[in-house]
Amino acid sequence: MRMRPTLSWTPAQDLPPGTTDLEPITDMLSTGGVLVLSGAGISTESGIPDYRGENGSLSRHTPMTYQDFTASAQARRRYWARSHLGWRTFGRARPNDGHRAVAAFGRHGLLSGVITQNVDGLHQFAGSEGVVELHGSLDQVVCLSCRASSSRRELALRLESANPGFAPVAAAINPDGDADLADEQVGDFQVVPCAVCGGILKPDVVFFGETVPPSRVEHCRRLVRESTSLLVLGSSLTVMSGFRFVREAAQAGKPVLIVNRDPTRGDQHALTRVAVPLGAALTTVADRLDIPLGSVS
Prior knowledge:
Number of helices: 10
Shape: elongated
Largest sheet: 6 strands, parallel
Radius of gyration: 19 Å
């Protein structure tokens, strides 16, 4: 039997409660050298749902795993039909105040780096530079055979051509860009192969059950070592890919602060968890630091 990836965790009963006090975040940022680790929660105000919040997608949707995607042509058909539809909405998402605040903190020299678990590219859209996309980016597609890379926009045009008139109504859009569709809505959707070698195309993201490239992990570990503190924004830290950096920062004696409405797997390693909506929290902190957010066209 194939093992399913870890999608949830059980909070310890003795986890400290969240606070609404933003002063610790203001103090942390004012000293500089802060490494940001962001999760799906920072993009919810852009219309992209998170996985595990009150209305999180895991309550109705199990994400595609690498093992299922590579083993089954029908799974790939289902994935690409749903993802093709979801991309139309996902690709139109725009940065919110949380993304803009992170970019502003970076422009003012307060950050040592940004690591995101998200695949939506909204940090970069907002103006953040040098963002490490831990789980890759939906904006790129890679061939599993020849490793040729191409843009998602190019693939979207090919899928449009191969599936004229494909326009079912999705029940919801998920954090990975996947749309909720019933099997009958997928129908006989046509998947297109790699234009170079005819191989299987996969979004250039780390699926559940897949490992983050070791070089990317080491890059993030170096960022943790070079930072003075770690600020976690909108992540439950359920999966080890992000949680390990919280543990490593704490073990190195670096302060860890978490902004997340719900308890997280990393709360026991943090000085505090601020349970305030991210956009409002970071906007308030920026005001206190006299940092304008700027705008995104």
